[in-house]
Write a structure and sequence with these properties.
single chain, about 950 residues, alpha+beta, Immunoglobulin-like, Neutral Protease, domain 2, ten-stranded mixed β-sheet, globular
Length: about 950
Amino acid sequence: MLQLCAGVMVQVLLIATFFCCSLSVAPKSHFRNYTHYRLPESIRPEHYTLKVVTLLDPLHLTFAGEVIIKFRVLIGTGNITLHARNLTIDEDRIELQKHEYTKTTLYAIDAVRSMDLYDYYVIHTCLPLLRDETYTLKLVFRAPLNHLLHGYYRSSYVDQLTNEIKWLSVTQFEPAYARIAFPCFDEPNYRTKFKVWLGHHKSFDALSNAPLHKQEQMSSESNETTDYVWSIFHETVPIPTYLVAYSVNNFTYKLSGNYGVKFSTWCRPEIADQCELAAQLAPELFTFFESILKSPLYFSKIDQVFIPDFAANAMENWGLITYRENALLFSTNISSEMNRRRVTTVVAHEVAHQWFGNLVNVKWWSNVWIIEGFATYMSILGVHHLNPGWNFLGVDSMNNILGVFESDARINSHPLTQEIKSIDQINNRFITGLSYKKGAMLLRMVHMIVGDDVFVSSIREYFSKSAYTADDYSSLWNTLTIKARSYQRMDRKVNLNTIIGSWGLQTGYPLLRVTRNYRTNNAYITQERFLLNSSHASIAPKNCWWIPITFTNASRLDFYGFKPSHWLECNGNERINITLKSVAARNDWVIFNVQIMGLYRVMYDKNNWILLNRTLNSKNYTDIHVLNRAQLIEDSLTLAWAGHIHYNLTLDILNYLQYEENYLPWRTALRGITKLDNVLKSYTETYKIFTDFVGYLLLPTYNSMQGLNITEDENETTHIAIMHRTQITYWACHVEIDDCVQAAKKYFNDWKASNVNKIPVNLRLAVYCTAIKYGDQSDWEFLWQYLQGLKVPSEQRTVIQSLCCSRNGTILSNFLHLIFNDTKYIRRQDSAAAFEGITRNQVGFQLAKDYLDGHVDELYEYYGTISRDITKLILPLARQITKTEDNKALLDLLNRKRDMFGKLRRSVLNAVEVIQLNVDWIKRYRNIVHKKLSKQILNPVPN
């Protein structure tokens, strides 16, 4: 095993003095324990020199290194407390030096301790470290390259030419995993410069945050030349540890862009063509953000690296963006439009992060929603800029709103800003998605209120003052407030710090109640927290939000007035209700929250719902803006679920979908219909009536699109039209519209017979799934064999999802075993999605539940220390559970393995809440829905 040679160590000392410990020093047992979850404020790092040698020999997948940390003492102390986890640190080679103008003093080390609770590594010094003095600490360490997809870990792939396994190494340090790769002060408020040296075999390339400065031959301990080299990188700008990144690999790369910044996209040689889209997008998006933000970043290069094994979709490391390979590859002739949109969105998110999170990051993870929210929202603007025809401002905003409306309506949700005390709590902020979606939609609300000019100019001003710092972004809210007032976009009594606080510090979101007086034409407006389980209202805190009020009516039809006419205010947590005068004439409907500008639901009185329903179920339905049509569908479905309105009204509103031609209302409706599909599929008679009703709604649109019998070239069809056909066709086959089922079976059988796949790319999920659902063992084996030869990850995901559609219990049981044991074709990072596919299957649900119960220990071992991954198997099951016996079985498992699931208590509580909601819904509403739909199917509304 290679060791770091003496020639690379720091050597120069002007005058060296050495202090050793006296015999009177107290024993270790007398050292005071430090138990706070944040590092002491006594020391601030100023610079890291990090040297790491990586061995990628299959028998020695390890790394060894040294780190030299220059730090300043802010408060006199007798120890150095930093982070280290799962590292073997050579205590005999710890060096501590104090630097003065004319001499360097070596400090002796009294003792070292590891405190596992917070990953502290504590070095006790013989003499105190003095305030305002500068020191350097050198630590030598080693560890195996782990397989857990965080820290410094190994990944592999099979070379398609030689059939050999190729190894590579890569980092994933966000949120707090740099400590697994090297000892460091692993908190986001410490921004320092890094000088990185990577030692590796000369046949590999090495990448890091900064450009490569030079390569040097590495010598062995006996000064003999070796096949190893040092790749020495330029010094970085100040960055936090979680943005440090490096990789050793033998990928190929493509240069792209001509924008002053060199973009290199690195991936396996055999998939280089599938990296083209990301290579093209990154420089275009970088230029867009640079042009509107006017805050230049000191980059000379940005690398994008596609990693075969990667837990997240991507990571925005400074100058070295890493992607999960199968999430970002795109094949022009095989990947779908949905995949194109996904790639574009992820790249936009990571490029936006170079400003929001990298140029200025948050001081602590409590406010991570700010950088994730900004990156998500700015990515929407970036994608819209590149592809205005995608209607991304509407479509993706609605997707995010729906995500928030679902998860944040549970009693066990969490506020955007909350105290964070552990890595598990930090990870939870990324798992739930609220930091991304709710954060983004809160920023969208601010943007729509203050306008483009105020929004953009305020961000520019903020970056000019705060670049390369860790901050809480509060000064940005102040700047936005001042500018918005000067442009008369907000009243003087309105302050964005207060508004942001009301939305960020409280759990949930509001339900706005609008009660009209049809004699005076006024409306009484109140607010309350919306909860899916309304019985929880008595135990939930009485929150109050500052709510921007916008509305229009049937006569005015103004859906573009974003300046709030009023604010629903708060006096502390006391809600202040208001009466609005002359909101609409007696026979006119009124709609509040135009274009869903605010993140809240609206509950109208019964008469207003009737007026809205009457317009929707008429030729004048387009009088209502498409986003507000989607809003009415979503609100009516969810308000009925929670018991606020009757399902008769909701199902009458859904009737209008037979006329609807736009993608977005259908997208919203099908999401809500999916929830009903989940809870009804175990009740055969009701489910048959329900799917007949959905088919009745779908059929006019399916026929107008020619369903699966399309004739036009998809290359000549708009993106949004393709997306719409994709969702309508999938559901048409799902609810067994005969034309769709027969066409899918014919497509599949023709492919089997000719071995030429002519199935339209964007309709393959519908075709594959339907063919497997109605097919036999030979059909399943044909698709499984097809998967084994695939080299396009997006098509692999489609096939894996389709293999879950079989109604043969034996096939599904065997597939469950393959999911968690055949990592060649189903990687660890994709196993949870495959498991979820089986849980959604009527036959597969019970098999999946039993498999989890019988293999939970093996699955925990399979996922390793990333315990959150095993919780991804719980929620898909929870969504399908409606019966008491299934509920009891899963609760027994969770209780039996509470030590296993305890670290992610919130995820488990959410799953338990989902189950209870489903069980209660069946008891309260199944018969009502059954009765209403029975009449609807017998007496449909004529077209």
